[in-house]
Amino acid sequence: MVHFRLHSGVLLYTLVVLFPHLCLGIRSIPTRETNTGAVDVPNGFRFSEAPDYRNGRDCPVSTTKGRSVSSCDPSLVHIAMTLDSAYLRGSIAAVHSVLKHASCPESIFFHFVAAEFDPASPRVLTQLVRSTFPSLNFKVYIFREDTVINLISSSIRQALENPLNYARNYLGDMLDLCVDRVIYLDSDIVVVDDIHKLWNTALSGSRVIGAPEYCHANFTQYFTSVFWSDLDMSGTFSSARRKPCYFNTGVMVMDLVRWREGDYKRRIEKWMEIQKKTRIYELGSLPPFLLVFAGDVEAIDHRWNQHGLGGDNVRGSCRSLHPGPVSLLHWSGKGKPWVRLDAKKPCKLDHLWEPYDLYISNSKGYYYAHNDHQSMGFFTGSSYL
After folding, report:
1. CA distances (Å), 307 to each of 218, 219, 302, in order?
2. 152 burial class (0-12, 13-18, 19+ CB within 10 angstroms)?
3. Longest alpha-carbon distance in the chain
């Protein structure tokens, strides 16, 4: 038994698996109901339909008054995630966990970014999400690789080179201009608290993002000796105003108005261009964010990103929880809970992910091809279907 503190009322150990700018409406595509209650869609993806989570009495009243929910509705909580075949099982579990613990699940709007050339097309991914969560408010955007691919350098692990990892850089361009704030979540997380608490985080001053910070981390390990020996580059962190605290980009509250006004997409791209010419870091999409934002992040309670549960980027060994309460569990690192559970070699904490898994296995094998997926695609800015 693993001993830790979780938000009151959250029961994680349960043995029962519960069940840029053109934004078009997503239309339904007929799917075939099976006698098991699951929905079959092309390419062998099979998930149980999630329970229908509804708003409580104290939730805000939608301004749409029964019409289709618009992403411009001011009562909504906006969440952005990527969607691809390799991590789809994790994405579905993450969405399920958010809805299960939300006080106002009908007031959440998901923005999914799907790779253009994924083995499961954006069309298939869209209908799968709709069949698994019939009442979910969401849009799917196509992400093409041609704008970002030339900025990506090799990394310590191939999965970190996937262009889809850089989708968070372009949310300000992709999402409707009326969306002025969004929570970005990685696909290997589960939320065990009310997401509205994270949404209500205030970004003080002119801060653009909020995230849990770790100011005692050894910052030198994230950049090469070439970086630290260059006074101009290393001077980025020498300002008295900017203490270089580490933060994980898998959970962020983002002010998209300030992001657009400050052209932060371009600031990140400039560091990626330097990396292509002179290797200044080994990891993928994290270091450019640290270079632009470290020391100027709204510090959020650590309970909102208990990260590193996937182990390191090479071995993926088992990890334990950090001390303190937990609102979000994050399997960052090489090891993913669904892979280890299916291989019957789970870490203890992988069982905390399991209750949110809606995937139904079949005799044809698992739907994912491998853990370190191939490069996919960059956005066109259009919802799919």
Report:
1. 16, 17, 9
2. buried
3. 66
Q: What is the per-residue pLDDT for 92?
A: 97
Query: In Å, how far are 123, 124, 266 from 31, measured between CA atoms?
Result: 13, 11, 42
pLDDT tens per residue across span 325-370:
999 999 998 899 999 999 999 999 999 999 999 998 764 344 433 3
H or E element, residue 340: helix 337-342
Write the CB contacts of 152 (distance below 8 Å, at least 6 apart in sequence): 161, 163, 166, 272, 284
3 state DSSP class of 101: helix
> Which token pair is 114?
């799907």
User: pLDDT tens digit string along 236-289?
Assistant: 887 656 677 889 999 999 999 999 999 999 999 999 899 888 888 887 788 899
Residue 172: pLDDT over 70: yes
Rounded CA separation 148/170 (Å): 10
CB 203 within 8 A of CB 238: no
DSSP code, position 317: -
Say whether pTM exceeds 0.85: no
Alpha-carbon distance 279 to 272, whole Å? 10
Q: Helix, strand or coil for residue 55?
A: coil
Q: What CA–CA distance (Å, rounded) separates 158 from 156?
A: 7
- The pLDDT of residue 163 is 76
How confident is residue 158, by pLDDT bands cut at 50, 70 and 90? Answer: low
Single-letter code of the amino acid located at 354: E
Give how far Cα 324 sits from Cα of 2, 214, 249, Å.
13, 14, 21
Q: Residue 97: phi, psi to the nearest 5?
A: -65, -40
- Give CA–CA dist 114/60, Å, rounded: 30
**φ and ψ at 236, to 5 degrees?**
-55, -35
Average pLDDT of every residue of the chain = 80
> Residue 336's closest CA among 119, 164, 93, 113?
93
Q: Which residue pairs, CB below 8 angstroms and at least 24 apart, start in 277-282?
A: 278/226, 279/153, 279/224, 279/226, 280/223, 280/224, 280/226, 280/227, 280/233, 281/222, 281/223, 281/224, 281/227, 282/155, 282/156, 282/224
